[in-house]
Structures are given as C-alpha cells and as structure tokens.
Amino acid sequence: xxxxxxxxxxxxxxxxxxxxxxxxxATAAFRFAAAALFAAHAHAAVPAAAVEGPIPATVxxxxxxxxxxFFATDRDxxxxxxxxxxxxxxxxxxxxxxxxxxxxxVIDSGHPYKTRMVVRRPVDPAKFNGVVILxxxxxxxxxxxxxxxxxSGAHLVRSGYAYAAISAQAVGFGGVTVxxxxxxxxxxxxxxxxVTRGGQITDDALSYDIFAQAAQALRNPAGVRPLGNxxxxxxxASGESQSAARLTTYINSVHPLHRVIDGLLLHSGGSDLxxxxxxxxxxxIFSESDLLISFPTVLNKFAVRQPDTETLRTxxxxxxxxxxxxxxxxxxxxxxxxxLGPQPPDAKCDSPSRSHVPTHYVLNAAYDHLARWAMVGxxxxxxxxxxxxxxxxxxxxxxxxxALGGIRLAExxxxxxxxxxxxxxQGSVAMTCSLRGANVPFSDSTLxxxxxxxxxxxxxxxxxxxx
Length: 467
Fold this sequence. Notes:
The chain has helices spanning 16-19, 28-39, 147-158, 181-185, 187-190, 207-219, 242-258, 288-292, 325-331, 334-340, 359-376, 410-413, 430-436, 444-450, 454-465, and strands at residues 50-52, 82-96, 106-122, 131-136, 162-166, 234-240, 263-267, 282-287, 312-317, 388-389, 394-395, 417-420, 438-441.
C-alpha cells in the first residue's frame, strides 16, 4: 500500500450525513503551507530509547504462566499480514516543568527507566500506509488499557497503519500503588520494569520523556528496529480520557522542546486549552458525556471549547458516551477476564447503561483525516458543535431527548432510542454511570408513529447514510 492510501473502514459511510453538513476550510495554498509547517520538526532533539526484543512469548495468550504480552490482541493479525511483538525500552529520562499552555523546561535529567512497548504492524512494507499510531496507555483502571486499539484496531489493520502502545506511567505495572498489575501478573516477564527510579519519583514526571523517547525509537531507532523493515512517514500520538489529559500537557509543554511527533488525536480527555502554536495538527474528539461531566479534578469540556484553527480541529458526537456499548463489549469482554479473572457485572445505573451510538466510526475517520493533515496539510472538515445555551451552558435536546447539533450518526439522525451521554447511579456507582451514558429504547407506539413500516425506517437510514 502506498503512503496516503486509506481503505475506508466498515461503517464509515455512517459519517456521510454528518460530513454533508460541513465544509472543508483548507485551500490548496493553505494545504501547501501547512504541510511545510508540519514537516519542520527537530526529530533528532530527543534520544531514542534503547530497544530490547522482540521479547518472545513462550505460551499462548490465556496460559496461567503469563509469559506473553499483557492484553495480547485477540484479533487474527496473521491472516491480515500483521504481527504483534513486545519490546522493552530503556534509557535515561528527564523531568520537565509543565506550565499551563506554555513551553516547559528541563528540571533535571539522568533518571534511568525501563518499560515496555507493544507493536502491531504490517509484515510487508507494501501493506504499510506510512503512519504509526502511538498510543499512551490509559491506566485509570489500574492497568494498561489500550482504548484506541480496542475501538479502532480493525480499521487500523484494514487501512495499513502500524500501531504501538507505550507503558509510560507507574500505576500500569508497579512501583507506586498496591495494584502492581504487570509485575504481579507476570513477575518473570515484567519484574525489571520501572519508571520511578526505584520508587524515588512517584508522580509520573518521567512519563513525558519516556513517551518521546519511544516515539524516537520508532522513527530513528539506534539499534533494534521495533517496526522491522517499515519506514514511517508520520508518528501520530493518541490517547483517551486519562491519557488524553497527559498528552494535552505533553503537547503544550514538552512537545515544543523536541517535536518528535507529527500529530495528535485526543479522545475524551484534557481539561486544558490547546496552545495556539502546537506546530503539529491536534484533533480533539469529544463524546456527549465529556461535555457534561465534572469531577473535582476534571472540567467538563464546555469549559475548554476552542474555535477551530489552522492546527486544531474539534469534533463533538451527539448521543455518545465516554464509555459506550461497543467499547464495553471489546474491553470488558473476554480479554479482561482472560488477563485478570472474571469481572463483576456492569454497574446498575438509573437508566439502561451505555450509549449504542458507535463512536469508533468517527474515530476511524478522525485517524484518516489526521494522517492526511499531518502528511500533506489537508485539514479535516469542520463539524457543527453540539448545541447548548444558558449560563452555565445546558445541552439542547429534541422532542425525544436526543442532543441537537454535533456529528449525527444514523442512530441519532434516525433514532429508535434516546441515546445520551448522561446517566446517573446511586452511591459508589454515580461517577461510573455518568461516564457510560444511556440507551433508552422508544416505546412501540413512538416507533410506529415514526416508522409506520420497517421499510420506512430502512429508507430513512439509507437517506442519511448515502447522501
């Protein structure tokens, strides 16, 4: 596959209705200028991590011996011409100041670390589209969670991307908390990993440099080549929720010091504004939940709305939740049970839990748009924001209770349920339920009034998805 050749992912046609509402803003002149701007990086300013591996998997996933990559994918990669490999990365990391929205500075250097990186890539360079997605593992559940891969892995494989994920934070594998997931899960495999300098640095201050050195090891490896014989044209960073918040700090304060990535996709996270001059394209994707929820340390995303610029795009997806039904099936299914044992049932919320609007279709499109934006300066289309009014802002809804505005997939444009980013729960599950949103099916009478016959529904869906 030649660079910039993207195979449309299954379901991407559902974006047709939403994208018919938007206009491309980039002119040919701007695209040329943007490409020149984004290409001007100092990729060699940060050292590449030393790479060891690939670390052999001596047993099949699911073996109680656990001598294989944690959360090894259950996708059939070999039939698609892909392989999965795990590497250990080591080096000497710096700590940085991270002033809000501004370039930081080195506090000190010389802190040894050792971590891991999982790579899934085409075997044949002809299948490679030239783009590497580098995900910062989300560690909210107390272990490394690859939200981006779980939602868009099938699309990334179909489209020829290489994918890598880096363990940058201590909670993922041990050294700070009692969870110590990776080390307890496989002491023999992961017992030597450490990003805390033996427990001396407990605030993940080394995580930004570890991430940058991992990116450099993919782009300019000093020895072992994690991508094998693939030569990347662009490294795109990606993170969801907690890891998107870390990457927001990274792009604002650390990226300007060495500029080792070519673009950034932030999904459902980040409580800070993006600086006006990041130097690379930044794509923010927000679910409906993200605009509504507020925790003591997390502002709702109404508070960090910014207008689109030459380097920033924001898409808001009506009816979606922070943790939707598709992700629940992918992540809380057999993979988590395989690695960590049987999981408790989904929390009981006040409304039926988890939106059924498929966020991953929009994410698939966003990866493709970001790749073109980073490599040739072709900016993504702007999209309408979810509608809100008042002080404080309140989301506006239609007569059914679905949000107005935003990117509107078929589940919202031709509804059969109230699909919402909102939900509530009692006691300890209140916060959890607020992240999951709701799917409340319409009554039979409402469905009959909207769609007197099944063909009426089918025709309405076709109208919004094929326009």
